[in-house]
């Protein structure tokens, strides 16, 4: 791949979180300050929210490296849709506690005993819960109840909640979470990187893998890159991966702005920045639904009934297709174009051979034109194959993005 062509030690723009590539943007520096303050308090909840790909997981991985493993025990939960009882058992397993059966009371007792033992050994306990927007209201309430465990007046458990913007909205809007909201001692929403941070971010990651100036980076890249990605780190990584791949395939030593334009066109707008939805009226979400679904349901119930949309505003079948369908269609179309070009090449070769045979070995007068046409078709075939490769990479990157989100 491109890392071999440019002599990198590894891929600099991988999509999975890696604390070795941590870049301290303005918003990440603020987040670390809030985290440091919150952890020094040793109690309650610290909340970090941000868009998918904003760098929450990388931030936490960097934080864990800074923690003293001799004085802090860390449990981690990456949630699916959990109810209250499931949350207790998952939290217990995150601390290595093996609870037989599904007895909630036994799980709570085991967690409390574990917390007391850690406190007596001079160790604090931190529970990190990722994708908190997937938790039900009941599960969030169970986490709040876990924060009640104390040894004398000393709190035994602190919780770090990571979530997408809808979790930030849920905390602000839900009356059901008033008690949890009162226990949040620090919170920060990760904003996108600023325009002036794109170049330092990219070069920081490149230097980490041994970049020596090859490829050279056109100064016109940065404004376009920020506009295309909205300053979201993971989106920047996606675009830079594709740009470096194109550079390697075309054996380019300079990555120029027109190459970036071509990459963005191939990605078909997948990296357009998302617009954050406006806050909805306060509501009482369903306690048994995941938080993101609960607040969406509450919003729809609180919103006035909208008039039916005009027929011409209905979504077309193309718009209703999922991402996978689009990817498959694009790949099939590219292969169809490739087959078409190959068939045309075969016909041209057959015609040339027939002309040579009929003319007794004479060269046809229009041979140069025919050869030029074949060369153009070969170029088209190469472009088609490159497009197929790009679309397949885009599909697998989108799968990795979902897995890492």
UniProtKB/TrEMBL annotation:
InterPro entries for this protein: AAA+_ATPase, AAA_22, ExeA_AAA_ATPase_DNA-bind, P-loop_NTPase, XrtA-assoc_ATPase-like
AAA+ ATPase domain sequence ranges: 42-216
GO MF annotation: an example: ATP hydrolysis activity
SUPFAM superfamilies reported in the protein's UniProt record: P-loop containing nucleoside triphosphate hydrolases
Region of interest called Disordered, as start-end residue ranges on this chain: 267-287
Pfam family, one: AAA_22
SMART domains referenced in this protein's UniProt entry, alphabetically: AAA (SM00382)
Gene3D superfamilies the UniProt entry points to: P-loop containing nucleotide triphosphate hydrolases
PANTHER family noted in UniProt: GENERAL SECRETION PATHWAY PROTEIN A-RELATED, MU-LIKE PROPHAGE FLUMU DNA TRANSPOSITION PROTEIN B
NCBIfam families named among the record's database cross-references: pepcterm_ATPase
Name used for this protein in its record: AAA family ATPase
């Amino acid at each position: 791949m491109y890392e071999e062509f440019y002599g990198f030690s590894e891929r600099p723009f991988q999509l999975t979180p890696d604390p070795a590539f941590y870049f301290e943007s303005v918003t990440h520096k603020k987040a670390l300050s809030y985290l440091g303050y919150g952890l020094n308090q040793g109690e309650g909840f610290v909340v970090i929210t941000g868009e998918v790909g904003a760098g929450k997981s990388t931030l936490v991985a960097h934080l864990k490296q800074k923690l003293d493993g001799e004085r802090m025990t860390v449990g981690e939960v990456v949630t699916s849709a959990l109810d209250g009882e499931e949350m207790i058992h998952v939290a217990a397993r995150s601390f290595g506690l093996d609870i037989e059966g599904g007895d909630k009371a036994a799980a709570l007792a085991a967690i409390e005993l574990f917390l007391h033992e850690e406190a007596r050994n001079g160790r604090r306990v931190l529970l990190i819960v990722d994708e908190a927007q997937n938790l039900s209201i009941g599960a969030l309430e169970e986490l709040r109840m876990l924060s009640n465990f104390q040894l004398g007046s000393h709190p035994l458990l602190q919780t770090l909640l990571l979530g997408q913007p809808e979790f930030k909205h849920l905390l602000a809007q839900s009356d059901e979470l008033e008690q949890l909201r009162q226990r949040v001692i620090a919170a920060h929403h990760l904003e996108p990187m600023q325009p002036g941070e794109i170049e330092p971010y990219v070069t920081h990651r490149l230097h980490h893998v041994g970049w020596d100036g090859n490829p050279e980076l056109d100064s016109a890249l940065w404004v376009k890159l920020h506009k295309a990605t909205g300053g979201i780190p993971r989106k920047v990584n996606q675009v830079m991966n594709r740009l470096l791949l194109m550079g390697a395939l075309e054996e380019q030593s300079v990555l120029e702005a027109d190459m970036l334009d071509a990459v963005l066109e191939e990605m078909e707008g997948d990296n357009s920045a998302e617009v954050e939805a406006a806050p909805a009226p306060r509501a009482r979400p369903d306690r048994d639904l995941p938080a993101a679904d609960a607040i969406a349901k509450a919003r729809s119930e609180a919103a006035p009934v909208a008039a039916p949309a005009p027929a011409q505003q209905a979504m077309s079948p193309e718009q209703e297709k999922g991402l996978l369908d689009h990817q498959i269609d694009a790949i099939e179309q590219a292969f169809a174009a490739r087959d078409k070009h190959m068939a045309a090449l075969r016909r041209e070769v057959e015609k040339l051979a027939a002309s040579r045979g009929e003319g007794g070995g004479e060269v046809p007068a229009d041979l140069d034109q025919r050869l030029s046409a074949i060369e153009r078709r070969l170029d088209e075939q190469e472009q088609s194959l490159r497009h197929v490769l790009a679309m397949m990479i885009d599909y697998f990157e989108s799968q990795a993005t979902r897995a890492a989100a």
